# Entry
Amino acid sequence: MNKILFLVLLISGGLYAQVKLVSWNLENLGSSKSESEITFIVSTLKDYDIVAIQEVVAGDGGAQAVAKLADELNRTGAKWDYVVSNPTSGSSYKTERYAYLWKPSKVKLKGKPWLETKYNQEIDREPYFAMFEYEGKEFTLVNFHAITKKMQPETEIKYFKYFFDEYPKLNLIFLGDFNCPQSHSVFNPWRKNNYIPAFVNQKTSLKKECKKGECLASEFDNIWFNSKIIKVLESKAIPFYLEFESLEKARTISDHIPIVVKFNFI
# Structure
């Protein structure tokens, strides 16, 4: 067998296969997003395999906006499926929906996604679980949007440590807007369970205006994975705001930037 053929077989056999996963807090994703804004979001997301979205409007327009995203993604040359959660049930802060969009040619949805309501009295916007399969390996995304920093998101994030015992057989990947930096001690139980963040010292929220060339404000969004099971091949944040003439115009898309990981299994 010549070297070129060997390399082709090696690659097609999955040595370089990977899942490209995006998490994005799309501020108030609903009827307020214009057609051009939806088109811009689609152009940012179309080259990935799975998209997890936070801050989908709970009322009219939220689910429809996700459907528009899926419809336009389907026009980019690949088939996309999507699912939108019911509104979160927390009562002390605003309710929202979550969403997943994915390419069924790359990953397969297993079962029905669910809002984890066991701690919905302690967690305002309870996380949205969805199990996927990639090349025979399963992983479960846990999509989450915490309460704001001034409301002390660590007071609800602390309940996530119980999910390790609740779902011992699931390969959980926690992702979303935690409104809390990965360095916070509330994540120590995660680290003890071999979970590490894909991003360290990466700011992900936008300032209202750039100051001295700095446009990013806080280290809030992240993707946490089990380092004994998952191998992250690449992680990056997408500074989409650089494509706009002003931060004000960029913030019509979102006040957060999307984060991406490319991963495989150990």
The helical segments are 3-12, 35-45, 62-73, 154-157, 163-166, 188-192, 247-250.
